[in-house]
Write a structure and sequence with these properties.
single chain, alpha/beta, Rossmann fold, seven-stranded parallel beta sheet, 13% strand
């Protein structure tokens, strides 16, 4: 049976590929973006199977209205894909308050508004699948990405909690953690040159040069292949809570988690000392 999708940030990149993959197999899609002109070709090709919706995820009222329109138009919602987001680049000391707030408004609050708007429909149906696009940056952190990492780490915890809250309603949650994908004119993305840059402080110029020399060296994934992988996830009877998309960051993530476990083990004496001997349970 065909599925009904609601996809944010679907005018380009992975989101666009997700929409195209769903439509090409006969599913129906509410495709949202801040500008819907880019969906004209999809409307011409798929007609009423695609519902373009102009929406900014930071506008809570618009999000709720768009989800309502999609549910009423198609009669149900099966797959809700929180894909909209961007990466703010800059050292923590360089970030302005507004840049940090804007990052969280889009990446975190925008995702929350979509979930809150969609859940009443999914609960009533007793079924549905929420897909949250996180990132390898939600599992490990690197210099100059503090704002972006903060948003993606927040989404990891938020959606893990969400999964436990909605399981009894028949609603599934999957957090997708992509590595680098060739979504900018077919090129391997360079996170240090993405248009969202803090005003540089010369104190960090050396760090920027060192990271810049390494940027784009990870093998870029194919967005079309990612879209096909997503179809398998949403068709699974028992989808994972978390799944990496791409292989480039897997060794780094393995090492990061092994290092954390080793550090906690190595410092167990301090952990016990910090607990004290009050004889009380938390």
């Amino acid at each position: 049976m065909s599925k009904v999708w609601f996809v944010t940030g679907s005018s380009r990149g992975l989101g666009r590929n997700f929409v195209e993959a769903a439509l090409s197999r006969g599913d129906r899609v509410a495709a949202t973006a801040r500008n819907t002109a880019g969906f004209d070709d999809l409307v011409a090709a798929y007609g009423d199977a695609v519902l373009p919706l102009e929406m900014d995820v930071t506008d809570k009222a618009a999000v709720f209205e768009s989800v309502k329109r999609a549910a009423e138009h198609f009669g149900r919602l099966d797959v809700v894909v929180n894909n909209a987001g961007y990466a703010q680049v800059g050292a923590i000391e360089e970030l302005t308050e507004q840049q940090l707030r804007d990052q969280m408004e889009t990446n975190v609050f925008g995702a929350v508004w979509v979930v809150q708007a969609a859940l009443p429909y999914l609960r009533e149906q007793g079924a549905g699948h929420i897909i949250q696009l996180s990132s390898a940056a939600g599992l490990i952190a690197m210099p100059l990405g503090g704002a972006y990492h903060a948003s993606k780490w927040a989404l990891e915890g938020l959606n893990e909690a969400l999964a436990g809250e909605v399981a009894e309603f028949g609603v599934k949650v999957t957090i997708i953690e992509p590595g680098g994908f060739a979504t900018r004119s077919g090129k391997n993305p360079d996170p240090l040159n993405n248009g969202f840059m803090a005003e540089p402080d010369p104190a960090y110029d050396g760090l920027r040069r060192r990271l810049g020399a390494m940027a784009g060296k990870q093998p870029a994934g194919d967005p079309a292949a990612a879209a096909q992988a997503l179809l398998k996830l949403v068709d699974s009877d028992n989808p994972p809570l978390r799944v990496l998309f791409g292989q480039g960051f897997y060794p780094m993530i393995q090492k990061a988690y092994a290092d954390r476990l080793k550090t906690w083990t190595d410092w167990q004496d301090i952990s016990k000392e910090a607990h004290g001997n009050l004889g009380q349970t938390a």
